[in-house]
């Protein structure tokens, strides 16, 4: 058995960044309750298992703006403080896990706000990727870019059929930050990660499974959460400190790289979004998304009419 003295020394040595603030693991105070962080992030603690279902709740597409990131960061702090037994990350939308970063934060940004925004994103990544508690994602909808990032930060991913997931940044004319890339490299084979990143490829559920970007496919959200619970339960017999330190050792280099270069990363981000070509790409993308959204009723009407014509043809 490792002595608690050794664990403290080991923890201090590698985690001077405060990833683990205490190596003492108390049993979580179980309570059947739902907490909210400005309603943007809902937390539901399961009384029996001690697992928390954390639901991103920013309609319509859970795009990650400053407020949502701040709320999520604070939830991650709470889970850490309460020595959570495990977290399942999901979405309140029926079709979108998260649309990634809110493009409106990047397009023609207010510099003071965008600094807080990027810092919050860094905080969330460090806390989620390096969490001492085990994590799983119930991906109940599309997960592009930042949505894929948060899913990949979790140790296990269960996804519903017929959605898409991936880091699509190059398609938008932007470069995924190195820590986004590191998270993908930690998830799928190196060569596949390079191809996926350079192509900005979005994978359909089936292809994501073949690639190892997700671990399982579920029939519906309830099934996805159930499968995540089965995964988390596997850790119930593993001593918590050993599990947490192993996970954090595994991910330590990626986390240190950002921890030691947070300001440089912020400056690189400022440089990238100040580039007129990047702003032009983002402007076109915002316009495209808005147009697509407005065209939806027309496209649905066309689809409906096509269906009627097809069934009439069959009858004839
Ligand atoms: C050398 C090194 C250099 C640099 C490194 C450092 C820094 C680099 C700089 C920046 C890096 C920044 C990294 C960014 C990562 C990201 O996360 S970028 C975001 C990428 N996200 C996407 O591409 C997803 C876009 N959305 C969609 O594809 C679809 O919306 C989605 C499939 C998610 C859902 O489809 P659907 O259900 O049909 O919904 P709609 O498309 O109709 O959308 C509904 C409304 O939501 C708005 N919306 C959608 N996505 C976003 C978004 N990401 N941000 C803001 N708003 C969004 C959409 O406009 C609709 O709104 P409306 O109805 O028009 O009001």
Automatic annotation (TrEMBL):
<keyword id="KW-0276">Fatty acid metabolism</keyword>
<dbReference type="InterPro" id="IPR029045">
    <property type="entry name" value="ClpP/crotonase-like_dom_sf"/>
</dbReference>
<dbReference type="InterPro" id="IPR001753">
    <property type="entry name" value="Enoyl-CoA_hydra/iso"/>
</dbReference>
<keyword id="KW-0443">Lipid metabolism</keyword>
<comment type="pathway">
    <text>Lipid metabolism; fatty acid beta-oxidation.</text>
</comment>
<dbReference type="GO" id="GO:0005759">
    <property type="term" value="C:mitochondrial matrix"/>
</dbReference>
<keyword id="KW-0809">Transit peptide</keyword>
<dbReference type="GO" id="GO:0004165">
    <property type="term" value="F:delta(3)-delta(2)-enoyl-CoA isomerase activity"/>
</dbReference>
<keyword id="KW-0007">Acetylation</keyword>
<dbReference type="Pfam" id="PF00378">
    <property type="entry name" value="ECH_1"/>
</dbReference>
<comment type="function">
    <text>Key enzyme of fatty acid beta-oxidation. Able to isomerize both 3-cis (3Z) and 3-trans (3E) double bonds into the 2-trans (2E) form in a range of enoyl-CoA species, with a preference for (3Z)-enoyl-CoAs over (3E)-enoyl-CoAs. The catalytic efficiency of this enzyme is not affected by the fatty acyl chain length.</text>
</comment>
<comment type="subunit">
    <text>Homotrimer.</text>
</comment>
<keyword id="KW-0413">Isomerase</keyword>
<dbReference type="GO" id="GO:0006635">
    <property type="term" value="P:fatty acid beta-oxidation"/>
</dbReference>
<keyword id="KW-0496">Mitochondrion</keyword>
<protein>
    <recommendedName>
        <fullName>Enoyl-CoA delta isomerase 1, mitochondrial</fullName>
    </recommendedName>
</protein>
């Amino acid at each position: 058995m490792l002595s608690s003295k050794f664990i403290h020394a080991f923890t201090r040595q590698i985690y001077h960044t405060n990833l683990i603030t205490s190596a003492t693991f108390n049993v979580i105070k179980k309570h059947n309750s739902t907490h909210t962080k400005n309603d943007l992030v809902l937390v539901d603690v399961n009384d029996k298992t001690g697992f928390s279902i954390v639901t991103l709740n920013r309609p319509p597409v859970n795009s990650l703006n400053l407020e949502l990131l701040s709320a999520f960061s604070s939830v991650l702090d709470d889970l850490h403080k309460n020595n959570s037994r495990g977290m399942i990350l999901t979405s309140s939308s029926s079709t979108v896990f998260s649309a990634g970063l809110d493009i409106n934060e990047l397009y023609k940004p207010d510099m003071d706000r965008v600094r807080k925004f990027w810092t919050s994103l860094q905080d969330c990544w460090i806390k989620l990727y390096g969490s001492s508690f085990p994590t799983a994602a119930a991906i109940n909808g599309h997960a592009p870019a930042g949505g894929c990032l948060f899913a990949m930060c979790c140790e296990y991913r269960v996804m519903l059929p017929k959605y898409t997931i991936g880091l699509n940044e190059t398609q938008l004319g932007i470069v995924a930050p190195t820590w986004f890339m590191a998270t993908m490299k930690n998830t799928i084979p190196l060569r596949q990660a390079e191809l996926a990143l350079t192509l900005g490829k979005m994978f359909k559920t089936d292809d994501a499974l073949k690639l190892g970007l997700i671990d399982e496919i579920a029939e519906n959200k309830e099934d996805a959460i159930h499968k995540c619970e089965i995964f988390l339960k596997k850790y119930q017999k593993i001593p918590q400190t050993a599990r947490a330190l192993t996970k954090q050792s595994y991910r330590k280099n990626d986390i240190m790289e950002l921890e030691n270069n947070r300001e440089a990363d912020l400056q690189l981000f400022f440089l990238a979004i100040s580039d007129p070509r990047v702003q032009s790409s983002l402007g076109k993308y915002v316009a495209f998304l808005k147009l697509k959204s407005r065209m939806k009723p027309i496209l649905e009407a066309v689809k409906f009419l096509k269906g009627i014509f097809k069934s009439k043809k069959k009858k004839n």
